[in-house]
Design brief:
By secondary structure, the chain is α+β, with helices and mostly antiparallel strands. It has 20 helices and 23 strands. The longest helix has 45 residues.
């Protein structure tokens, strides 16, 4: 019984799995089949379009084609900014493993006549920065490119890329005016991608390159290529040509610009502006220290070079023609205008000048130490009398002086296309002082007598840019019109009322100032402007020596316009922190540019 029971028990236990196995297997088959069906449904129906796109992208390659950036031309169609092709040797690390690299390096060195040591150095240096593309050599010549193409089949993983780089044939000439281009950053791309920019795009940073970016850049094109599993090109599926950017003709004259740069050559820092007072067309605009914009087209640049450009106290990227400085005696016509326009100091007035006039706690001296006796506006400008203009400025007050300055365009942007780089300058007055002077709390820095005395001769509380000064003197040169300085004509009528406005100034005021400025250049502090140059037309102008309110050495200024009766050119010369006087340092700079202009006029009547 025991044995039989054991046998039956064993038999029953062995039959249990046999009875349930088909059901379990069926369940497993249904479960797995359902999962497969659901997965296929998900892949083919729900996600079908997505995976089709991935498949196409695996089979199709889109090759972008960069547009050619528009050229920059001077007024005579001389090219001052262009684009050139650059050939770069690079490799893709995913196609070149550690075993293949030494052989590839040796072949590249042999076929392209490149140093193995330098190739290895670039490989090691760049791998950590970009594991997808390693640049080994730049600016390959035509022979090297042809040799590479001949041996390309044996150089798997290496490639020669063609790039369009901005090229400035005259190097640093007019660099601040022209500007430069640079690759866009990742943060910029998030915004610029909506405007059609690609991550490999370049954009104008400063100067005309930035101001006219939409005009110059063009539109990207591309080609659709079909490739096999190995990445080899099978055929072209279509090409969309890139649209080149538009050329831009500037108002500057290359010869005059070269003259301005040469005039600045022996100065530590400064600026020169030359413009047409009739239209506002800028003929030259130079700033020093300068830089070579070709630097930004290089693939490899040293940290030392970057530090010089961006961290140097010399500020070579800083456009001094658009930055504000103390104008010194070049400001005196503004004070004279305020005196005559208010009626408190009419054109025929005579004032006694002396060695010193006391305002507040300070004695404001005459620059010759003794005064010029009883004189009027013409002699006051001719000799650049300080005490004459102290009396006028203090007499009319800060508000009248401020009003005259505003009429001449000071304390405002000039309208030039480079407004994103331009300073507004400063014309201090009582309201500005009581509001805190821009650095203190309201009520703690009141306007004092010393302020208006300083403001009368362009010191301390007055700062202007060389371009603002050129624009203001254009009013005296053209018969009373405030023009809009510009770097490109663009088919605009710059003499229309929108761009050239009549200044609210009495005719007698204007003529008095003009006669005084003519006397300066004829027999006054600026007599040397035409000395021994009998071929120059009559010139009017003003010298200026200004204390640097930031604590540095004096600035030197000279402004002039010619011909006196029907002016065609206004020139402002500024030597930053160059003590010795405007007639000693700035006048010779303006003289060089004036001579160049006169020669151009004779050769192109």
């Amino acid at each position: 019984m025991i044995d039989k029971f054991k046998y039956n028990a064993g038999t029953n236990q062995s039959k249990i799995p046999l009875i349930n196995q088909p059901a379990i297997l069926l369940f497993l088959v249904i479960f797995l089949s359902s999962g497969m069906i659901l997965r296929l449904f998900w892949l083919q129906i729900i996600q079908g379009s997505f995976y089709k796109k991935l498949s196409d992208e695996n089979r199709i390659r889109l090759v972008s084609r960069a547009p050619v950036r528009g050229r920059l031309l001077d007024k005579n169609n001389k090219v001052i900014a262009d684009s050139r092709l650059s050939y770069t040797l690079s490799i893709q690390p995913r196609l070149v493993n550690a075993k293949r690299w030494p052989l590839l390096r040796k072949r590249l060195s042999k076929f392209l006549n490149l140093s193995e040591k330098e190739l290895q150095a670039q490989f090691t240096k760049s791998y950590r920065k970009d594991p997808l593309r390693i640049i080994l050599a730049n600016n390959l010549d035509t022979t090297q490119v042809l040799r590479f193409k001949e041996q390309e089949a044996t150089l798997k993983g290496a490639q020669v890329d063609v790039e369009l780089l901005r090229y400035y044939p005259y190097g640093s000439l007019a660099s601040h005016l022209i500007g430069y281009t640079q690759p866009i950053t990742a943060s910029e791309f998030k915004i610029l991608s909506k405007k059609g920019y690609l991550i490999a795009d370049r954009i104008g940073r400063i100067g005309v390159e930035a101001a006219y970016e939409p005009h110059l850049r063009g539109q990207w094109g591309g080609e659709m290529l079909e490739v096999d599993a190995l990445g080899s090109i099978q055929r072209s599926l279509g090409i969309k040509p890139s649209v080149p950017g538009k050329d831009l003709q500037l108002t500057i004259d290359l010869v005059l610009q070269q003259s301005a740069e040469k005039a600045l050559a022996d100065k530590k820092a400064g600026a020169i502006v030359a413009l047409d007072p009739r239209t506002g067309a800028i003929r030259a605009m130079a700033s020093k220290p300068t830089f070579d914009p070709n630097f930004f087209s290089q693939s490899f640049t040293s940290q030392k070079d970057y530090d010089y450009l961006f961290s140097s106290p010399k500020k070579p990227l800083f456009n001094r023609a658009l930055n504000a400085y103390d104008p010194g005696s070049t400001w005196k016509p503004v004070t004279g205008m305020a005196g005559m326009e208010t009626g408190q100091f009419p054109p025929e007035i005579m004032l006694k000048t002396t060695s010193c006039i006391k305002y507040g706690a300070h004695c404001f001296r005459e620059h010759n130490g003794k005064g010029f006796g009883l004189i009027g506006y013409e002699d006051a400008l001719k000799f650049s009398s300080n005490t004459f203009f102290y009396q006028v400025g203090v007499g009319v007050g800060s508000e009248a002086l401020y009003d005259a300055a505003i009429k001449l365009g000071f304390n405002n942007l000039t309208g030039i296309e480079l407004d994103f780089e331009e300073g507004k300058g400063l014309v201090g007055n009582k309201k500005w002082a009581t509001q805190g002077r821009g650095w203190s709390e309201p009520g703690k820095t009141p306007w004092i007598p010393e302020d208006i005395a300083s403001a009368s001769i362009g010191q301390a509380v007055v700062q202007v840019t060389p371009l603002q000064l050129a624009r203001a003197y254009a009013v005296f040169a053209n018969g009373g019109y405030l023009i809009t300085p510009h770097l490109a004509s663009r088919g605009i009528d710059w003499t229309s009322m929108k761009y050239r406005k009549k200044v609210d100034i009495k005719e007698k005021t204007l003529e008095t100032l003009r006669r005084g400025l003519r006397a300066v250049a004829d027999s006054g502090t600026g007599w040397a402007i035409t000395a021994n140059l009998p071929n120059l037309p009559p010139v009017a102008g003003k010298t200026g020596t200004a204390e640097d309110s930031t604590g540095g050495p004096d600035h030197s200024w000279f402004v002039c316009f010619a011909p006196y009766d029907a002016s065609e050119i206004v020139i402002v010369a500024f030597a930053q922190n160059t003590p010795g006087g405007g007639s000693v340092h700035a006048l010779p700079m303006a003289r060089q540019v004036l001579q160049a202009w006169n020669q151009l006029k004779k050769s192109n009547p």
